[in-house]
Design goal:
heterodimer; A: alpha+beta; Arc Repressor Mutant, subunit A; Nuclear Transport Factor 2, Chain: A; 2 domains; 5-stranded antiparallel beta sheet; two-stranded antiparallel sheet; globular; B: alpha/beta; TIM Barrel; 8-stranded parallel beta sheet
């Protein structure tokens, strides 16, 4: 697992050093995301540590966040955890999205080595159309059941006058 | 005519002319003339150091009282040019104005003040710039300024390329700044502007460096961060230099072809030629789609020489037929039919010294608006129209800069 991985161009040290902590967080997340996208077969945290100029702890935190929002997933190979991007296997289920307040929701179909899934992504469109802040993933075969459950939940709420 | 649509939805139509207001009076004049008629001037290029002075009068700091129309300055394309060459190689007044923007590190302020010392030998200045200013020069504050003031596109801040001796160092810093601009736009909170703002690389290059052996390096620099548009400002150029001017236009034509090949485009990347006068019109037949001109003033800095005690800075009047700018006091009957000249019954004596500053600016804007309208509406091919116009003027030398068989004339 020591082979070279593809990386995006990095910001100069001068510019990076002048950034606020919040901007640095945003930059690290984007750089990680781009690095993962450039390596569609997955990369380990050791490879990332060797290649990217960021702390391992910080990168692990961002990887966990991206896993939570279903932008990436992980599989265990022996003693290594391989982080794999979902971007290539994810396609819009419908070209339309719905907007409530500052949030935009859209359904995607995801196919990766773990199976076929439906993904509902929540994006904050104030931060740009790419900023995913939440996500729900379920096996494709369970999607109808999930929608039926939502309908039933709605009926129960109406019955209780909520 | 071709209409370019920016990512934010604003448009400009080639051949296009943007105005570069540098003074409060320029802004007042623009506000005055735009409210009447200035439909052929599609945009403004404002240097970052002048923004504070002109913004109020251009109406940028206030919301419109009535519904905006195309005649509103707020709706015209607005570029804010970081113009770093004015900080690094400008006059002491320009350096002070740049520092007054407070967009630069404290170390830069100290080093720029050191540069202003008249006892400092000229050969030491580039070393101070490279060793003491470059390490502190960042792009983020300048881009933030542009975004904060609602610029129609983001112009990547970039150091000027002006020295043969330090060409490599300048090129390296410029590349780094341009690449950093792109990464910031893709990877930080600026990302929300990626789809709504064009990225423009604006390069200030000394005309002496426009040599075929430098083409490759300069071309690569100009598109190193995959910009949407490119702007060039050629420092030190003289219209009368019949060797250098054709070289500059050859450079632009070659760059247009290069951009098509490297970016796999079907047409050249939009090229802006900044800080020119009527010389820029010849650019329209040399792959330039838009020029920017300072308002009723020469874009070329007059260096005081030993032969002349002082540079004559008395007001000038743009002659619409001769296309030159004689001194205002040398004219009596105004050879122009614009709104402003008619208001004063086409007599300079009716203008009065109090109104002269605003009058000559208003007149210049109306005439430029008319010239662009003439180019756009002409039934003849643009190079032929330009050749005719130059031939009738006192600047026939400009016709020599129009190619015999132009590849990039806008039909």
């Amino acid at each position: 697992m020591s082979e070279q991985i593809a990386t995006p161009t990095f910001l100069s040290d001068l510019e990076y050093g002048k950034m606020s902590p919040q901007e640095k967080e945003s930059y690290i997340k984007e750089t990680l995301k781009k690095t993962l996208q450039l390596n569609p077969y997955g990369i380990t945290i050791s490879q990332l540590k060797q290649t990217l100029p960021f702390e391992k702890r910080v990168m692990e935190k961002h990887l966990e966040i991206m896993k939570f929002t279903n932008e990436i997933y992980s599989i265990t190979v022996g003693t290594n955890v391989l982080w794999i991007p979902n971007h290539k296997g994810m396609h819009e289920a419908t070209s339309e999205s719905v907007k409530f307040g500052n949030n935009e929701y859209q359904v995607y179909i995801l196919k990766n080595r773990l199976g076929d899934f439906a993904v509902i992504q929540q994006k904050d469109f104030r931060k740009g159309s790419q900023e995913v802040i939440g996500s729900l993933q379920m096996p494709m075969k369970d999607y109808d059941g999930f929608v039926a459950y939502l309908r039933k939940a709605k009926q129960d709420m109406e019955r209780r006058g909520v | 005519m071709k209409v370019y649509t920016l990512k934010n939805g604003q448009t400009f139509t080639t051949p296009s002319l943007f105005v570069n207001p540098q003074h409060r009076l320029d802004a007042k004049s623009l506000a005055h003339t735009t409210s009447k008629s200035l439909s052929n001037i599609d945009g403004l290029v404002i240097d970052i150091m002048d923004y504070g002075e002109v913004a109020d009068d251009l109406g940028f700091n206030s919301a419109p009282i009535v519904m905006t129309s195309q005649a509103d300055l707020r709706d015209k394309v607005r570029f804010i040019d970081p113009s770093l060459h004015k900080l690094l190689n400008g006059s002491s007044e320009e350096k002070s104005q740049m520092l007054a923007t407070k967009l630069f590190d404290e170390q830069i302020t100290k080093s720029v003040r050191k540069l202003a010392n008249p006892d400092l030998p000229n050969k030491e200045k580039p070393q101070i710039i490279i060793n003491e200013i470059y390490p502190y020069l960042t792009v983020k504050p300048l881009i933030d300024f542009e975004v904060r003031h609602d610029a129609s596109a983001i112009i990547s801040p970039c150091v000027n390329i002006s020295s043969k001796t330090y060409f490599r160092q300048q090129l390296s810093k410029a590349t780094q700044m341009l690449v950093d601009s792109r990464i910031l736009l893709e990877s930080t909170d600026l990302k929300k502007y990626l789809e709504t703002r064009d990225l423009i690389n604006s390069l200030a290059i000394n005309y002496k460096l426009i040599q075929p052996q430098n083409y490759s390096s300069l071309f690569k620099l100009a598109i190193c961060n995959n910009p949407d548009q490119v702007a060039f400002k050629f420092l030190g150029i003289r219209e009368s230099d019949s060797v250098s001017v054709p070289e500059v236009f050859a450079f632009l034509r070659n760059f247009a072809v290069y951009s098509m090949e490297m970016q796999e485009r079907k047409e050249p990347i939009p090229i802006h030629l900044l800080n020119v006068d009527e010389l820029g019109y010849a650019g329209y037949t040399n792959a330039v789609c838009n020029i920017s001109c300072p308002l009723a003033t020469s874009p070329y800095y007059s260096y005081p020489s030993k032969d002349r005690d002082e540079v004559d800075t008395s007001p000038t009047y743009y002659h619409p037929i001769d296309m030159n700018s004689p001194k205002a006091h040398s004219i009596d009957i105004l050879p122009c039919e614009c709104i402003e000249c008619r208001f004063y019954n086409q007599r300079m004596s009716n203008v009065g010294s109090k109104n002269l500053a605003l009058f000559r600016r208003n007149h210049w804007l109306y005439v430029k608006d008319g010239e662009i309208s003439q180019f756009r509406q002409s039934r003849a091919r643009l190079d032929i129209e330009l050749r005719d116009k130059f031939a009738r003027s006192m600047r026939t030398q400009l016709a020599a800069y129009l190619p015999e068989n132009p590849l990039f004339t806008i039909y």
